[in-house]
User: Fold these one by one.
Assistant:
Number 1:
Amino acid sequence: MLTLSGVSKSFELKNGSYPAVRQVSLEVKAASIHGIIGPSGAGKSTLLRLINLLERPDMGTVTVGGKELTALPERQLRRERQKIGMIFQHFNLVGNATVSRNVAIPLELAGVKRGERLKRTAEVLEFVGLADKAQQYPAQLSGGQRQRVAIARALANSPQLLLCDEPTSALDPGTTADILGVLKNINAALGVTIVIVTHELDVVRSICTEVSVMKDGGIVDSFSRGEHEFLP
Ligand code: ADP
Ligand code: ADP
């Protein structure tokens, strides 16, 4: 489903260049829930952003669903990127737009016609259990509801892959469990492959089928559920 091969990324700093991700190769199986864990500064978030080319790798290739994204011209890349959803720790909703509009934004960007947009927006809001909040604004919602809106937005274009950057780190334990339930359901019911960056081991233990451990920009360990006491 997703293959990273020899991917590296350095950031230019005042006193030289800092290698945030070093020579990472990674295979994420279709329909898996793949966790990326490791200490703060290990490069997890950068690695996630390299998957949809929000960061351009300095070296290496990224292949999603059989298409090598790193080889595509900008126009085609934009189209392929629409098949990859992403959610964030702080939800990143547009504050002055309604829930419905937030969810419709990626559909507008993809050129989906109004009628189809309305239908699809209603569908994904129903899926995350927020059909009754369509006309509210993000500030009127709880953290868990905001993350559900972000999930609905990420699902709007029917992605094969959903990237999650610390999706529950701003949520209390009860709400975390709810959101993990939604992610599990997206994986099970829609067959969406999920990559999730988190520093919360409970998150990994409750939903991940595979885990990669990052340290100093590299993957230092990886295992599947049942292979290791860490992921029984
Ligand atoms: P993690 O998600 O594991 O905490 P990050 O991927 O956020 O790690 O960061 C890895 C390293 O790269 C950190 O040292 C961070 O300061 C640096 N870094 C990340 N993004 C940038 C950027 N845009 N410019 C400069 N340095 C960055
Ligand atoms: P950050 O700087 O925290 O990444 P951004 O403002 O760049 O926040 O937006 C993060 C995400 O929010 C984007 O990746 C996108 O999904 C969504 N988003 C925000 N504003 C828009 C917009 N005008 N059109 C489409 N998507 C948007």
Number 2:
Amino acid sequence: MNREWKKISDFEEILFEEYNGIAKITINRPRYCNAFTPKTTWELSQAFSLCREMQHISVVLLTGTGDKAFCSGGDMNVKGRGGYIDGDGVPRLSVLDVQMQIRRLPKPVIAMVNGYAIGGGHVLHLVCDLTIASDNAVFGQTGPKVGSFDAGFGASYLARIVGQKKAREIWFLCRQYTAEEAERMGMVNKVVPFDRLEDECVEWAETMMERSPLALRMIKAGLNAELDGQAGIQELAGDATMLYYFLDEAQEGGRAFLEKRKPDFKKYPKMP
Ligand code: S0N
């Protein structure tokens, strides 16, 4: 189906659009197989922040322009000592911030993988909540071949998904895997023909939009908490605090302070 995506804001290296409560963030550097520079990751961070704030956005799709690549990782043209270097001369590894934003966004993120998901691009799809891939998609890590590695989510989260042996194979051998192989490994939720990819992702997004957004938020935080230790507990605990603040019991504490009286908490239930 040809749907009308409406631009949300102007960026240089990404497209940021919406349709019917779904945001679509597209890495738009097809000349470089959608490799990311510090500017790309800065723009991705801005877009994900906006997705967090915008009340009418329920689900986010992350993809790349064209039919060749989702994302081929860090742009080798700007890889220098200490990280990726843009005009200001400062080396950065700022895709790590984007990974964290995707994991902590309290809304589902679907990786819409339309071709190569390689290197840092492979890690980007991994950290999304769901991955739907076209049948031409190719997955793999290249770090040990090209002088890099991601020992964070790219290692531990990958191993949680595909198992330790397979994760070591993926990193140590730097082979490429088809979409079907990635699906069998549990890295991909569904493989569809290329011309079905966007429709499939929108259908999954629309199904999730029929579910309780708060329930999805809590279950995402719960799935993260098990893996993310103290940071994961902080995320889940923040959600619990948010819910507590909706209760009269929490309001009573604040009201009593402002009215300079003792709070009366006795009337509130102590559930078994
Ligand atoms: C994607 C591949 C397999 C496609 O191969 P194919 O079909 O043969 O096309 P090419 O002719 O190779 O590509 C077309 C043009 O695109 C350029 N290009 C492709 N990828 C990149 C890239 N990553 N950077 C810059 N340019 C790229 C090609 O050069 C070509 O241009 P021309 O026409 O001028 O020759 C194939 O292209 C491929 O293997 N690409 C490289 C993939 C790769 O190795 N990526 C890994 C990069 N490293 C990382 O992502 C590391 C991540 C990292 O550093 C990190 C780690 C921990 C914490 C943070 C970070 C961080 O990134 O911040």
